[in-house]
Structure formats: C-alpha cells, structure tokens
Known about the structure:
The protein is α+β, with helices and mostly antiparallel strands.
Amino acid sequence: MTLNTEQRAMAARLLRDAEHHIAPIEPLSSLLPGLDLSDAYAIQRDNIARRLADGASVVGHKIGLTSAAMQQLLGVGEPDFGHLLNDMVHRDGAPVFAGQYCRPRIEPEICFRLARPLLGPAITVQDVLDATDAVAPALEIADSRIQDWKITLVDTVADNASSAGLICGPWMALADSPDLASVTVDLLVDGACVASGRGREVLGHPAAAVAWLANTLAAFSTSLAPGEIVLPGAMTEAPFVTAGQGVEARFSGLRPVSASFV
C-alpha cells in the first residue's frame, strides 16, 4: 500500500459522505495521487465493514470490467470486484427510487447462486458450474460516487466497484438452464431496445468471471460460500437511467426481469 492509515480512512469517509448526501466527489485518484489497487480494496473493505456494523449483511459479490471494451476504456487487463449487501436488493418489477443514487446505470447480467463453496486459487469454469445450483436473470444498478463517472480502476474499486443495487428475476436450476455463454439479452428502456449482447461477452463465459473472483479472493484469504450470489458482469453496455423510466431485460432461455425507476 502507498497510502497511510489516515489517508485511507479519509478516502473511505469521502465515499460514505458522497453516498449518504448523494453528492459525488472528485476522483480519489486525483485527490490522492499515490492511491494504488491495494489501497483501493482496503478502502472498499473499510466501508463494507462499517455497513455491516450498521446491520447490513453480505449476500454475495459483483464482478466488473469483464468485457474487453470496458477493460480497454480503463486501460486494465483484468476485472475488479465489489460486495452485494442485503439492503441493495430490490424485488423484480418493484419501483426503485432513482433519487437515492448519484447517476445510476443499468446492466443486464446472469446471476449465479452457489450451493457449494469455491476456494481458490485453482478454480475452473467447470468447478463453478459444479458448485452452482441455480441462475437467474438480473439487472445490476451501477452507480458512481465519483463525479461524472470520471473513474480509473482504483476509483471504482474503492467505490465498491461502482455497485449500488440488484434486481433478480426467477431462479432456474442450472441443470435446466441453457448454455450460459450462448444466452442472448435485449435491454429495453421504456419499451425500446437500447442494447443487446450475449453471455460470452463476459470473459468468454459468465462462469469464467466467477472462477476469476474465487481465485482472486484467495489472495484475501476469502472464499465464496454456499448461498452466496454472484453477478459476473454486464452482457451489454450500461445506459444511464432516470426517474420515470422502466427497464426490462429479455433473455433467451431465461425469464425476463424488470424495474421501474420513480
């Protein structure tokens, strides 16, 4: 790490205040030029620990930067990850208050639910599939507490990988699901298709992203536990959404999932 304890604590507090007041801040990478990836994950863990102390619980993880386009945009060669908490989960089709976010985006994903633990560092795609009991269509609400989404890798990692919410559709047993790499999705906003993609956009196969996460968490002496859910990454680009808009993701071989922003 390149920052001292006080600097990391300050960065965590700035992000917490930005989220609480819905007032995004300047990029941490500008405010703290020495910020590196280890610092960023430490800042993320600090804020997650505080939310747990306030009564929230971890229900899973999200993975970001799993598409070649997003990696090229930020100039990185691997994904990142954040935490999913119970107070971030919304019901399928339920209204979502847009005003609680700074500048939200929406991403269609295939959510995994684990039945067995995954402990890296040698987890494979087949290991992930063997440990998964069900998958579901999902929408991730991504939000940045960094002004105008002017983020570098360390900015988004410190900011819980820009994760803010999750809407899960109906679960389907993995044994009954289609080949996840071949699943297609159309993302609709107010009934108009704004983006389309396939499961293979996510590191070639969504389960490859989950394997990456399990192997990466091993460096933090952490594993994925039974019952946890994992969002492996967006299958399309992530458009901005605002109050008054309805969003739906229609997947081949899976049920649709939707949300209304109010």
